[in-house]
Amino acid sequence: MGSFRSAWNRFYAMFKARNLEFFRDRGSLAWSILFPIVILAGIAFAFDGDGQTQFKIGVMDSVPEQAKAEGVSNNDAKTNFYGLKYLEFVVYNDLQNAQEKVQKHAIDILIDHQSKQYWINQSSPQGYFVEQLLLGHDDNYQRVTLDGKEVRYIDWLLPGILGMNMMFSSLLGVSHSIVRYRKNSVLKRLKATPLRAIEFVFAQIMSRLFIVLVMSAFVFVVCDLMFDFYMIGSYLDLLVIGVLGSLCMISLGLLVASRSRSEELTGGIMNVITWPMMILSGVWFSLEGAPEAVVQLSQVFPLTHVLNGARAIMTDGSSLWDLQFEVGLLLVLTVIFMTLCSWLFRWEGDGR
Prior knowledge:
The chain is an alpha/beta fold. The chain contains 14 helices and five strands. It has a five-stranded mixed β-sheet with strand order 2-1-3-4-5, sandwiched between helices. Helix 7 packs antiparallel against helix 13 (302-316). The longest helix has 31 residues, at 153-183.
């Protein structure tokens, strides 16, 4: 009985100490409470409150008037394709641009209700279902085949998956190691050496960049052998976009960790940065038809420009010259993050 009580006392002392450590860290506590609320509110705003839109349909010139009427009744929905629930209609005025959106899975189908024609990507599962819905309501529409090689969904998805992997490896890998070094006083010892902050930061960036590129290249080659990805641009240009994107996100991770002494707080901040990027940068789906405020917000994230550049090279054959905006922005952001990190960086932690 005495040994059980002693074991319980030791367990309770550790349980209480760990809880007090967490709840006294106000930054970690605040992030733990605010993070899910912020993410939920952001998703509700980005996806029109219910997040239940299942199909994106391009419509030439305008949506028919009956679809604009609010409160379409169930009886109307049975006979009116535009009255069906969970369909999002995106209006286009440029036919060629709209057809490219279909080829790249930005929308599921394109309909011209005036000429009674529709365009579809034959490799799109969502497009197939929308086609059946359309013909079920009106079989007078004429199917038009798109010219050229169609981009499969997996071709469109690959840059998103690789970019997301690079983002997590760049941000989380470098920030957590820096905070751990600071807590264990490793940085304090390094400060006693001739090593300068900029030299330490630069070495961390180069090391993480090497790891990210090697791992990403390995995944790309293996997946390419398995799925034979669509690639009409330059591999060298794709590598440059990958290097610039990795540098930018590693620098951002170092900036977050430049003064933090808490792994919980750093993890919370990283969640606030990575989740919006993962949702709003076009990793899994296109933001075509999303509210303008959401599209503008997505332009703030480095991952958005990495994915735009990679997809433009792979599916459009764009060159770095065509991607001047993306290249320039990633370079500017990298310089800003590195400069701020070198300025704010501190060696000391709470360890002894």
